[in-house]
Design brief:
The chain has 710 residues and is α/β, with parallel strands linked by helices. The protein has 30 helices and 23 strands. The two termini are 19 Å apart.
Amino acid sequence: MIDFNKELNQEQLEAVLHGDGPCLVLAGAGSGKTRTVTYRVAYLLEQGADPSSILLLTFTNKAAREMLDRIGQLAGPAARGVWGGTFHAVANRLLRSFAPNLGYTSQFTILDEEDARSLIKAVLKDAKIDPKARRFPSPSVIQHLYSYGRNTGLSLQEVLEVKYSNFSDCAHDLDFVLKNYQQRKMRANAMDFDDMLANWLRVMEEQPQAAAMISGRFRYVLVDEYQDTNALQSRLVGSLGQVHGNVFAVGDDAQSIYAFRGADVKNILAFPKQWPEAKIFKLLSNYRSTPQILEVANESLKNNVNQYAKDLIGLKEQGLKPTLIACPSARQEAAVIADKILTLRSQGVALGNMAVLFRATAHSQALEFELMKRDVPYEYRGGVRFFERAHIKDILAFVRIAENVKDETAWIRVLNMQAGIGAASASQIIANLRGLDRVSDIFGLAEGSVPARAQSGWQDALSVFQPLSTEAVKPGQMVRVFVSSVMYRNYLEREYPDWKERLEDLEQLAAFADAYPDMGSFLADSVLEGAGFVSQKGHGLQADERMVLSTIHQAKGLEWDTVFVIHLTNLGFPSPRALEEDTIEEERRLFYVAVTRARNHLFLSYPQTAGYDAMTFCRPSMFIEELSPHLFDRLNVPSGSSEHRSSWKSGRAEYTGYEEPSIQLDGNGEYRRPAVSIHQSEPKTVSVWKKIDSNKPAPKITYLREVDDM
């Protein structure tokens, strides 16, 4: 027998012991959501519920495995019959029985994303549509807009209006392609991931007998992370509760941050309306963060309107106030953060207990470069490292050609983007380029050097280099010339669903290039960074020997002793797109998620100027400016001249000893690592942190007992 009174706090206990009927559990960050769900299932089993009548829906396989393992530890063999898994996993099990009702056999094939793209490519080929030859979305973009429509319930026209207005003129052909895509899947007895959920919903809404059988089977339906459901999933949950009405939805509207995937916070906000008899429980006791960190989170969230009112209550001992760091530039911000990381490590905080979080991948580039130079190993989450991203490599290929017209690998990449140029045509063109000495010579390439079928694509490639034929430009200017070219902009929009985010990365690349006087040094440093010295050095290390760099979206559900949230400027967070699309409340929730990842130490930083040229002045993010000043300790980083110092007075600290880092090469042109290394027995830092408003020594880092994952 489980002693629920002993194992749970009062908030959790009330939710777990809830009887029949729908209920919504609002589980604040760090309040024990997983514990509540698993003990709820254990309680139902202890009360005699048939294990096979319990359905637990999650969003990841990892979450499903973790919860089922815990349930097994609590309830023993009785837990083996519980249905648990992701929406897609459960759909697969059910459709093996009910797919014949929809025209499939029970042996239907599941297409992964790569399979689905291949089928879309085949449809395009049969329709004689070449996305390279005309302004038409690539298979990846088609797949994305199709998926978004299926999951949100929007028509193709509505998806184009909301997400892809640049392809509105392609609506007729897109409709033809998608209908053929559906028909070919049916003929092949295959479903993609979106079909699995859509077909499950068809069974529940179009076939009353099957729906009654499924809904009747599952007496208790539990849904984890309900705030992340999209329209289709919300309808599925509603249909599953038709017979018994015992829907136990657990989530936190304050952590709804995936609208770009189709998730809709309205689902959790409208739960009481959908289920008028629903009981609402709030888990507000936070086991993770210090009260000072929670003060920042709570006050920030009060600025949202569409939400459930709640304040997290900290159960940990008092800690340090979060530190707000104002830096003159992005490079100095990176240097300060890297310096603080080394300082904390020397005081006993393992690298694995530290994370740097950011709104967009473009915001990490300066810090990645700084950590590489400091020899600090890190794990990057939220995508690939900056200089390894496809669009960054695209633009660098153009730059490499401008610097060295004989660069064959760069030409292969550039020619591969063009219409009508395949491997054979590219080889012929490159062979005829070998005798050229300057990029301007490409405009005089002899007639016949380019195959007739490749002429259009070749002219598009030439158009990108045309602005460089009249005058020399600096590295940053050159990057912007290539990025703004009609050819590359069309390519970017055609190939990538997230082309707007990639443009932000490319502007960061241009800002990085602004710091260099010539192409040679810019390309050399780009290659050194792209070579991944840090990743190679850190490969094979234990988890606590590598810190984490992550987008905030990827950090959801995780926690660290020390968290840095960087680039909190009015130009970067909220995202400029949020201002255009009126999604400020979701951006504020994203800030809330970032803050609540920290257990003991929280650092919030922003550069006062944008770009490596430091010519664009920035204010702190609105999410900083709307908070009470007393919530922070402030740190001002001087740039070397008094006019750049912040005007903040109260609780101020100053950072001194900033040194501009640089990559050094030895006599053989090989990369020479800096002297500072985390592997030294006594790590050195290049600067000193000191509080100027107190004569007391800085507090030592202490370890608080980690509370079990409640």
